């Protein structure tokens, strides 16, 4: 299989996405990495667990850095991202499955909220 063609296709797909679609992609990756961390911790595959947690932190940091602070919700999101980062640090250091399982639904809920918002905003754009 020619990987160059696949890489080109992936790049083109990403380049043609809206900002909302890219945001959802990041949230999907965040939830996926949280799941990977949970599975790896269960298997005591600590390098994979730590890598997945580190990637979650990277994604959350990026989301926080790219907030548009002219909107009031940004302050609340930033505080939420700070909480997630703090919890992920605790989870990583303590390899704490219970805390990870408590955090994962919060990440999924946030993703689902943005998914709903994206559907609403893209639906409004089509009507107007």
Shape: globular
The whole-angstrom Rg is: 17 Å
Please estimate the helix content. over 70%
Largest sheet: none
Question: Averaged pLDDT, please?
Answer: 87
Order of helices and strands: HHHHH
Q: How many angstroms does the end-to-end distance come to?
A: 44 Å
Detail the poorly predicted runs: none
What's the total number of strands? 0
> How large is the share of residues in beta strands?
under 5%
Total DSSP helices: 5
Class derived from helix and strand content: mainly alpha
Considering the chains and any ligands shown, give keywords for the structure.
5 helices, single chain, mainly alpha
Model description:
The protein is mainly α and 128 residues long. α2 packs antiparallel against α3, α2 runs antiparallel to α5 and α4 runs antiparallel to α5. The chain is globular and about 45 Å long.
Concise synopsis of the structure shown:
With 128 residues, the protein is mainly alpha-helical. It is 86% helix and 0% strand.
